[in-house]
Amino acid sequence: STGTAQLAANFYATSCPNIQALVRGAMREAVNRQPRLGAAMLRMHFHDCFVNGCDGSVLLDDTASFTGEKNARPNQNSLIGFDVIDTIKTRVERACNATVSCADILALAARDGVALLGGPSWQVPLGRRDARTASQSDANNDLPSPFSDLPALIAAFAAKGLTAAEMTVLSGGHTIGQARCAGFRNRIYNETNINANFATTRRASCPATGGDNNLAPLDSSPNRFDTAYFSGLVGQRGLLHSDQQLFNGGSQDALVRTYSTNVNTFVRDFANAMIRMGNISPLTGTNGEIRRNCRVLN
Ligand code: HEM
Ligand SMILES: [Ca+2]
Ligand SMILES: [Ca+2]
User: At the top level of CATH, which class does the domain 150-274 belong to?
Assistant: First the structure.
């Protein structure tokens, strides 16, 4: 759970003083090449933290002794940017070998992805260590589904020690990035709490059958970390069923309205919630390991 971790922003201050600059430089290159990679790092960190804590488990390839998380239902053909982490890790190992965990690199990359797309920055508590295993079944069970209703979304976050309000502000991560047609087809063809023009527009690139992997932006400005995700919800232009659940006559409506018109409140609450999410069950001290290659155990 959250809150008990002994992470510290200055964890690598003497052991790897350049870590922040190394991650930031590599992330700037990646986001300049493909802005979506900023979004991809944010999502990958979320999918790491929700599955047995922020321990780099999501980065492990499948092995003979365990099936990893990359091919779990929410991740397969969906997570991108593992090569960005590889690039960062290679540079970090060159600068300070066997010192910085993959879990910490991912937390920094997520923060920098947000900042480089115009969002807030924050000091990332560090000192996580890397898992020696991964669990595909835990990834299938613990990651929320885009077909979930509000009570299920709240429950999925509560199971990780996060509040409903934190769930709502963290869903604001959908102000950047893309989703596949298969994840929102039912919403744009069958749901009624959707803006008609928006549904028509989305149907044009997400046919009733086929095109499962066609992409659509999660808000009207997918390369910009802004409040458009929340104003979209107020206008019934949420792309995923789970998105629109946050503004559908329920407990989160007022907060969605607040974020839709108050960028300062949104980015402040988002940064604080990211630190809380980043504190989910980290391995610290002598637990776990500092992986040399983020894809494989030492
Ligand atoms: C509340 C429950 C959530 C659900 C059900 C959910 C579901 C999804 C789905 C289905 C996609 C599209 C994946 C695809 O089609 O391949 C997606 C994308 C994304 N999600 Fe979430 N998500 C949730 C919360 C979050 C949180 C907490 C964050 C981060 C703080 C986040 C960040 C992202 C980002 C950045 C993308 C775009 C990734 C890209 O473009 O590569 N999501 N999410
Ligand atoms: Ca994990
Ligand atoms: Ca946006």
Answer: mainly alpha
Q: Which ligand is nearest to the CA of 75?
A: 1
Q: Has 219 been labeled as part of a binding site?
A: yes
Q: Is the CB of 174 under 6 A from ligand 1?
A: yes
Residue 94 exposed, middle or buried by CB count within 10 Å (0-12, 13-18, 19+) = exposed
pLDDT tens by residue, 44-54: 999 999 999 99
The conformational region for residue 85 under phi > 0 = left, psi -120 to 50 = alpha, else beta, is: alpha
Atom of ligand 1 nearest to the CA of 36: 40
Nearest to residue 5, comparing CAs of 54, 58, 41, 39? 54
Q: Is the confidence metric ipTM above 0.85 for this complex?
A: yes
What are the pLDDT digits (tens) for 71-113? 999 999 999 999 999 999 999 999 999 999 999 999 999 999 9
Report H helices in the chain: 19-33, 36-49, 82-95, 102-116, 136-142, 150-158, 164-171, 185-190, 196-204, 228-234, 241-244, 253-261, 263-277
**What are the structural domain ranges in the chain?**
19-143, 150-274
Instruction: Please identify, in words, the CATH class of the domain defined by 19-143.
Output: mainly alpha
Q: β-pairing, 178-180 with 215-217?
A: antiparallel
Q: b vs e for 214-235, b when ≥16 Cβ sit within 10 Å of the residue's Cβ? A: bebbbbebbbebbbbbbbbbee
Any known ligand binding at 174? yes
